[in-house]
Amino acid sequence: GPSAQVGERGKSAFHRSQTLGYRNGFAYSRLPTVGIGRERLYVNQLSQAELDELSNKRPTLTYGQAKQAPPSDFIPAHVAFDKKVLKFDAYFQEDVPISTEEHFRIRQVGIYYYLEDDSMSVMEPIVENSGIPQGKLIKRQRIPKNDRGDHYHWKDLNRGMNITIYGKTFRIVDCDPFTQVFLESQGIELNPPEKMIFDPYTELRKMPMRMYVTPSSFDQLKQFLTFDRQVLRFYAMWDDTENMFGENRPFLIHYYLADDTVEVRELHERNDGRDPFPVLIRRQRLPKSFVDKMKTFPRCVLEISNQEVLEWYTVKDFAVGKPITLLGRSFFIYDCDEFTRQFYHEKFGITDFQLVDVKKKAPEEVPQIIPPYNGYGFLEDSLQNCFSLLPQPPRKNFIKMLENDHKVLRYQVALESPNPEERKRRFILSYFLSTDMISIYEPPVRNSGIIGGKYLGKTKVPKPGSTTDNPVYYEPADLTIGATVEVFGHRFIISDADEYVLNYMESNAESFPATTLQSLRDHFAPRRTAVQAAESQSAAGTGRQELEELVRQVQEQLKHHNYLSNSSMREAFLHHDKDGSGFLNKAEFFALCNRFNLPVSDALVNKLISLCSHGENQISYHDFIRAFSC
């Protein structure tokens, strides 16, 4: 109708859509999604084959004429035979004209026939270390069969046949399973497979290598290649103390296994005073013994050769713990490094290396015998004569001398003697804290028959049992009440001490034993109690007088200010004093003062309050009220 004509005219594309596609490099057929004019084709739409079948079908009976078969679809060769390759195993033989080990060579190849375009290629598998360029032997192409322009076809290929390609004859021996199935499906009868022929020279190389016996003579080149950069290291000492100005010096001996040469190097220490010449003997072969006629050989101008040397030094001549003579110098080997130990263990089976201690032993210290004390001067001063020819004064503790300057502890001591007259004598023992010295003075007593004065000058007094090697002197900790002090054979008993001694020990209680401090406290306890009682009585009488005087002054001041006393003030203070102790705390006391307008800001009143205070929070109000009841 008209609408159909308009629709046909409105189309802009009349080509058929493609049915061949490529995915991942492979061709495949696909159904079109749109028709002519880009009309959408539905899934249940009839295909062209079905339409052709319906068009050729004639209405017949059910059991009438057979229907005409539809024409088959056309499939191109590049689609039907895509990625389908026939593979044949073959080999060819080539002559080897210039070789003493092989006369011909067998080279195995693979012949590939590509069905999609009837092309062929020849590939040779790569063999490692073959020395022949291998890989693609004939590139992919259509191979000519004869001079008439014919090309090889898959129908011309079979097992057990020869094929000539570009003048080179290949023998096909076998094919893969896909090739066999394909050719048999096409009606080609395959020949039986043949065995692949291998290259005789390649098979010979796969055999184990022959073991050659090394000749008995040692090869120097092999020694160099085997032991190159391998050096044995020995630690040695050269004892040259027998000669004048000789020393015992350390050295390193290097033995080079590559050429049996020896080198001797000196080990320098820091500040050893020697010039930096590390090499004592340069690297060379060292002779061990010479021939008998070697005495006239001019070694100073000619080098020593094998004709003059009977035996050279080898690795067997070096051993740890043994001496070795190199060019007239005797070296003692006392140690080696770890590589040298491993070499001797593998080469000679030596495992016990007797290491030798070559360190200089310190000389034995000669004990210094101090002569006995001769009794002159102090022990420290006399001891300096044993340490040097010019005696130096002993060191003094100047800090102790400055801190304890003019600090003296004085004690009263009595002489212990079987004579009753001697026991009555009294002495003053002074201990000087700055120098730890003791002096004893006897006060003169008239008509006693004994001349008093200095009994002992300032000196250090050793305790009983003290020795000259370990002197022990009297200290303040040893001076307790009732203790006995032995001064150069005389015994004194401490009976009394200054109170300064007790005060000093109490201020430095951590430096003195508790027994010493307690003995002095017990000695001064009665005396201190009496003094404190007298002071408290004196202080009480003095405080009462001051209070009375202050009360009188406050009363006089209030008279000048015309202050009128309040009779209810005493009752108020007594009322707040619940327990009748006569004391009120500060809060209640000042609250009552504000209530009765007492002048607490006045200086005299503040002083009166301070005298009436007992403790930090209690105030006695009786004396305070008495000052305001005038």
Automatic annotation (TrEMBL):
This is EF-hand domain containing 1. Residues 82-187, 228-348, 405-509 form the DM10 domain. Residues 564-599 form the EF-hand domain. GO terms for cellular component: axonemal microtubule; centrosome; mitotic spindle; spindle pole. GO terms for molecular function: alpha-tubulin binding; calcium ion binding. GO terms for biological process: cerebral cortex cell migration; cilium-dependent cell motility; mitotic cytokinesis; mitotic spindle organization; regulation of cell division. The keyword Calcium applies. PROSITE patterns: DM10 (PS51336), EF_HAND_1 (PS00018), EF_HAND_2 (PS50222). It is found in: Cytoplasm, Cytoskeleton, Flagellum axoneme. InterPro entries: DM10_dom (IPR006602), EF-hand-dom_pair (IPR011992), EF_Hand_1_Ca_BS (IPR018247), EF_hand_dom (IPR002048), EFHC1/EFHC2/EFHB (IPR040193). CDD domains: EFh (cd00051). SUPFAM superfamilies: EF-hand. SMART domains: DM10, EFh. It holds the Pfam family DM10_dom.
